[in-house]
Design brief:
- The protein is an alpha+beta fold and 205 residues long.
- It folds into 2 domains: 122 residues, Alpha-Beta Complex (Ribosomal Protein L22, Chain A), CATH 3.90.470; 74 residues, no CATH class.
- The chain contains 4 helices and 13 strands.
- The strands form 4 sheets. The protein has a 5-stranded antiparallel β-sheet, with helices on one face. It has a 3-stranded antiparallel β-sheet with strand order 6-13-12, with helices on one face.
- A hairpin with a 2-residue loop joins β12 and β13.
- The longest helix has 22 residues.
Length: 205
């Protein structure tokens, strides 16, 4: 079963502003080549969070195969191999752990990256980015799980109420989210992400 990951970043979120001009932050999460890429980018803020989203998505993929893998983003190199009009394909190269294949989408509001341990799987992923409802006190995590549950129910011709998305704990640490149908864990591989106004999911059937 291929493993998948995804990450979304809200480019308008105040907490994300100005980071592309913070040398200490850049050195903490980027390689030297990536820092140069940021300096020369037309939209440095979007470029920064694009690289971050790629690394986060890659970590979510690798963590499923190697639960103890440390996340050291400054040592993980993002390489874009193919630039399309609406997305970019590439890989995140992780020392001693190989690569994760990525597909990055970007607009003026957010960046979203999906990743997988097989390049062919990128074309088969089902994913969505959605905006949180305005004017409502709602948990992004609960909203995201409901939206994914509805999509899975539609795909699998199941009752929405029979699908649950849970994160269990092992040794006090939360594990990757899993899909349960009628109380039984399935092998459907999913990934969840939310930031600011946006929630995103990706999965492979």
């Amino acid at each position: 079963m291929p493993y998948v990951g995804n990450d979304v970043v809200d480019l308008k979120e105040p907490a994300n502003a100005g980071k592309s001009r913070d040398p200490r932050f850049l050195k903490k999460i980027l390689t030297d080549a990536e820092i140069e890429f940021i300096k020369n980018a037309e939209r440095p803020q979007a470029a920064l969070w694009s690289l971050w989203a790629c690394k986060e998505a890659a970590y979510k993929v690798k963590n499923k195969s190697f639960p103890d893998i440390p996340f050291i983003p400054r040592r993980w190199q993002v390489v874009f191999n193919k630039l399309q009009s609406d997305y970019s394909d590439g890989e995140v190269i992780i020392p001693e752990k190989g690569s994760v294949y990525i597909r990055l989408f970007s607009n003026i509001q957010c960046v979203h990256c999906v990743g997988a341990d097989s390049f062919a799987v990128l074309d088969q992923l089902i994913w969505s980015v959605e905006v949180l409802p305005e004017g409502k006190e709602i948990s992004p995590s609960l909203f995201l799980r409901d939206r994914l549950g509805e999509k899975l129910a539609n795909n699998l011709s199941l009752n929405f109420h029979d699908i649950k998305i849970r994160r269990t704990k092992t040794n006090g640490e939360l594990q990757q989210p899993c899909v349960y149908v009628d109380g039984k864990e399935t092998d459907i591989n999913i990934s969840l992400s939310h930031d600011g106004r946006f929630v995103a999911y990706a999965y492979y059937l």
